[in-house]
Amino acid sequence: MTQLIHPVLLCGGSGTRLWPLSRKSHPKQFVKLLGEESLFQASARLLSGAGFAAPSVVTGSDFRFMVVKQLAAVEIAPQSILIEPSARNTAAAICAAAVALQAQNGDSLMLVAPSDHVITDAEQFRSTVEAAAKTALDGQIVTFGIRPDRAETGYGWLELTAQPSNAFAPEAQRLASFVEKPDAETAETLLSGGMHLWNAGIFLFSTSTILSAFAEFAPETLSKVRNAFSTAETDLGFTRLAAEPWSTLEDISIDYAVMERAPNLSVMPYGGSWSDLGDWQAIWREREADGAGVVTSGPSTAIDCKNTLLHATSDTQQLVAMGLEDIIAVAMPDAVLVTHKDRAQDVKMAVTNLKAKGVAQAETLPRDYRPWGWYESIALGPRFQVKRIVVNPGAALSLQSHNHRSEHWVVVEGTAKVTIDHDVKTVTENQSVYIPLGAVHRMENPGKLPLTLIEVQTGSYFGEDDIIRYDDVYARGQSVKG
Predict the structure, then answer these.
(1) Which of 25, 65, 230, 477 is found 20 to 30 A from 319 (Cα to Cα)?
(2) Predicted TM-score of the model (pTM)
């Protein structure tokens, strides 16, 4: 391969079909679902090495520090991180990445991939991408199609113009058409016909090719994205796209905006392993099952069950199932999901229902992640709240005060540097400090190990919006928590 391929990882999805494990506050791409790396980390590693430039990432403001932390953990330095002011679907995200890449490097080969898919045959996938590069350099928009092994109704399909070549020596060909997610009977027909592939949502093209396509088929999107990029702000290494032009963008997928209208479309078959991990049934397929088709994870026990997934996350709970068949059961400390496997695609309906009822579990986890670490509520009463707080080495909370609560901090692991008004002190394990109501305070971890403390709040209101922020090393606004 003579020209570097620039990976672009789309990292803004919420993964509602994997609720309750995946939620808006901490979506599935950042979760370790199938190993010691998150899906995002595995995707970044897959698209790195010889022939690949450093990745670009498109994500939301809430996840920007999570992106940096997880990339650093796998020793990958990003080329750029674009911050979307709000979610506007894949057309806007891909257009922004193309505009940014063109501005930084001139005309470039650009590989767009979701950050929450699983591809275990890394060498075969990279070879497939390399084989598609010439077609992309010739001005084609290349989409990658997965060779199907079942009549899947949860994916869109791609119609070929010729029978696909050998799985290990694929060749790109003209794409005949896109097929929307089919019903079961249609999916069986597509599978048996041998002329259709699953649509993976992975694309390869030059920046000039895709920007020309936007100019022809979605000119308003291109104009607003260019405006948002030209007036973007840079802080702490992030590029924040301008909110005003971005907010007026149409919420539309790249398929509808460009792909289904462009004439220069090619498809590259990929015959290796792939999963979008789009629902719990996909998780069941990817994990190793016993002889009865039962998959267990965490503190869970299956008795006389068949073709069932049990997923538990808390060491303080035990998930036990008896006599279940074709059932998915997911237990977390604050939410439990039980559904038939055939309804796995409908879990997002449960999230919508919970949101309509104002249930916090619809979108937020008990553990709240922050740039400096995380916290979780242990107990909550009318006049008190108890939290466990973990601060990363070298990290610091904002300098702040509260109008409605005082706080007691008890250090149980590590060392804290605590500022209270004009007083700065060091607090070590088994020591505590009191923060009076209204005092300006900050907590820092000067050590090389995580700092863990128990915080006891007393007062009349414990909302995270009870913060007056004076200084923040992470350049977050007044309304941001922690």
Answers:
(1) 25
(2) 0.89
